[in-house]
Amino acid sequence: MKGRVMETTQQQINYYLKNYHQDLTHQLESGGTDKVNFCSESTPFFDEESEARQYLVDLAIIIDKMEWKF
Fold this sequence. Notes:
Layout: H1 2-39, H2 49-67
Helix pairs in contact: 1-2
């Protein structure tokens, strides 16, 4: 039964990461780095849009890798 609990936990983490990715994408597309920097407390500060876009790419890769574990 522990395996199923862990699987559920991993799925929940993946769910939250996907939501975080969508929120950052929305912030970036609707207000640029100024909005991302203003709305996000613990996300790194981005000086350039390219930095934010790379962060989103890296996050998407992590999310994708997590999905392969299910």
